[in-house]
Amino acid sequence: METLRVTTLMAATLAMGLAAGAFALYAHTIMPGLGRTDDRTFVAAFQATDRAIMNVWFIGLCFFGALIFTALAAFTHIGQRALPWIVAALILYAVAVVITIAVNVPLNDMIKNAGDPARIDVAAVRERFDEARWIGWNLVRVVTSTAAFGLLAWSLTLTSR
Known about the structure:
It holds the Pfam family Anthrone_oxy. By secondary structure, this protein is mostly helical. It has helices at residues 2-35, 39-53, 56-76, 83-112, 122-129, 131-160.
């Protein structure tokens, strides 16, 4: 059982680190870079980036993997002193997942489905996208997922003692 506990917690920690890193990358690099571009470039680049991120590595391993592995880690740590920290990480990351599904994905889908940037009013699409809203909620995802990653790392420390 100890091997299962450590394995699930390590998987949760690694997946959470990858998910937090992806959200952070959008916050400190991708969105600031796109924000400095013209409307056509912004729409085209965001569409391409959103299509590219929809893959098994990010969606399966990182985004949902962090949630699933953390839930499994909580289950395998019932009665262990790391459990409260793992549960706190699970709750924080669940907040990031809900924000993603409720805010970021609908905005992503709107811009992705707007059409070919060469044939649409890219200024209107960019305005409807609402960069400030997307960026603000992404910062909440950065904070919650990074805190969850830290809590899982602490849980690993407690488990190794």
